[in-house]
Design brief:
The chain is of the alpha/beta class and 412 residues long. It folds into two domains: 234 residues, Rossmann fold, CATH 3.40.50; 170 residues, 3-Layer(aba) Sandwich (Rossmann fold). It is built from 17 helices and 13 strands. Strands 3-2-1-4-5-6-7 form a seven-stranded parallel β-sheet. A six-stranded parallel β-sheet has the order 10-9-8-11-12-13, with helices on both faces. Helix 9 runs parallel beside helix 10. The longest helix is centred in the middle third of the chain and has 18 residues. The chain is globular, with a radius of gyration of 22 Å.
């Protein structure tokens, strides 16, 4: 493979970092370092995300934010496509196109690059399946009805199942986060050999030499969101303080302002505000430096299939504590202690165990560092490139007739 087009109009804006964005940024960086022609179709904010993350050697084709935010998907898509085909954007031809997110604008842009003959194959992605709204994030694994009903899931779930997934099934190959998710494709008749589990990408180059005594006993890194178990995180920390008074927790991440305010109010209500440092968003070497000056990583997600922040912590030598989510057993077989899903007291006991037993903490930290060595960005990019080249050698997926294809877009 010598050239690739990234449809990245929906990547995380500056000041935030979703998992799909991290994968796209690191893949683009590694592909460019190998001398490939990498063309990124994105917005002005998207270009800033690439540049602020230090991705060099790629070329950008900027499309207007208005093109992807106008009401009416078909109108928006056609406007976007006219921009891309315009002389000012000079596209060229590519061995493959890759959807940098599973949002419809990126999926259909990458697909159209293929269908219009501008890319030989299209590689889609679907890195996280939305849980059924009847179970929510909290009730997904226990099948507890309405355990934590989130009205937004009532919109996101059918949108993904009826629009995103059917579109992804027309790709020549798809990247997912965890092998356990391959079943969602296979049971719909999609060939297993066309699915590749990335898991996650860690930039080991960003991890410097460890300097200084620990500043924090524990650290959480991630988006502040109910899926990440943030309220449980604070409840858990109150349990930890009962056994280890004076312990310090760093919370690294941002979320919706209203949700952040509720979390801070909860910390005050629990009486733990003095033991919690709200760091905000960090990325790259700054984030790794904070992790290196922490002792334990807390991955409190209640619904997850990978969680790259935990891998980044393991790469820094921190053991992690997680809830015993089935996908995380696959993603993190070593370097972690697990607690029964939803059992905050048990989670806290695992933290106290690690903070009270330095030999155990160091041993699990060393195991975790070994485990995530395979997550290095260059190794992950090489695996992904081999997968794309395998797809390039396969016959293309059978194209839908033009009438059916346009009908699918209109229905979305």
């Amino acid at each position: 493979m010598k050239s690739i087009a990234l449809a990245a109009t929906m990547i995380s804006p500056p000041g935030s970092m979703g998992g799909n964005t991290k994968i796209a940024l690191e893949f683009a960086r590694s592909w460019a370092e190998r001398g490939m022609d990498v063309c990124v179709f994105t917005t002005a904010d998207g270009e800033r995300s690439f540049r602020e993350y230090g991705v060099d050697g790629v070329r950008f084709r900027i499309v207007s934010q208005e093109s992807i935010s106008r009401s009416g998907l078909v109108r928006a898509h056609n406007r976007l496509w006219r921009e891309i085909r315009s002389a000012e954007l000079g596209v060229g031809r590519f061995d493959a196109s890759y959807s940098a997110s599973d949002f419809i604008p990126d999926l259909i842009l990458a697909r159209r690059l293929r269908d219009e003959g501008l890319a030989s194959r299209w590689i889609g992605c679907l890195y996280l399946f939305v849980p059924h709204p009847a179970y929510g994030y909290e009730g997904h694994y226990s099948h507890k009805l309405f355990g934590s009903f989130d009205p937004r899931l009532a919109a996101f779930y059918p949108y993904q199942r009826l629009t995103v997934l059917p579109t992804a099934l027309t790709a020549d190959g798809n990247m997912i986060a965890n092998d356990v998710d391959a079943e969602e494709f296979v049971k719909r008749g999609y060939p297993r050999e066309r699915v590749h589990a990335v898991y996650g990408v860690v930039n080991l180059d960003h991890i410097g030499a460890h300097e200084g005594a620990p500043l924090y006993d524990a650290a959480f890194v991630g988006r502040l969101h109910p899926q990440k178990g943030c309220k449980r995180l604070l409840q858990i920390w109150k349990f930890v303080l009962a056994d280890l008074p004076g312990s310090k927790l760093a919370i690294v991440g941002v979320g919706e302002p209203a949700y952040e305010r509720r979390l801070r109010q909860l910390a005050r209500t629990l009486g733990i505000e003095d033991s919690v440092a709200w760091i905000g968003f960090l990325e790259g070497p700054q984030k790794y430096a904070l992790l290196q000056r922490s002792r334990v990583f807390l991955h409190t997600s209640v619904y997850d299939n990978c969680g790259m922040a935990a891998a980044e912590a393991l790469a820094c030598g921190l053991p992690a504590v997680t809830f015993d989510l089935p996908p995380l057993r696959v993603a993190y077989p070593r370097g972690t202690l697990k607690a029964p899903i939803g059992d905050e007291a048990a989670f806290a006991r695992q933290i106290v165990r690690l903070l009270s037993d330095e030999e155990l903490r160091r041993r699990l930290g060393a195991e975790g560092r070994q485990e995530v060595a395979a997550w290095d960005r260059r190794a992950r990019e090489k695996d992904a490139t081999l997968f794309i080249e395998k797809v390039l050698a396969m016959p293309p997926m059978r194209r839908e007739p033009a009438r059916a294809r346009h009908h699918t877009l209109e229905a979305t």
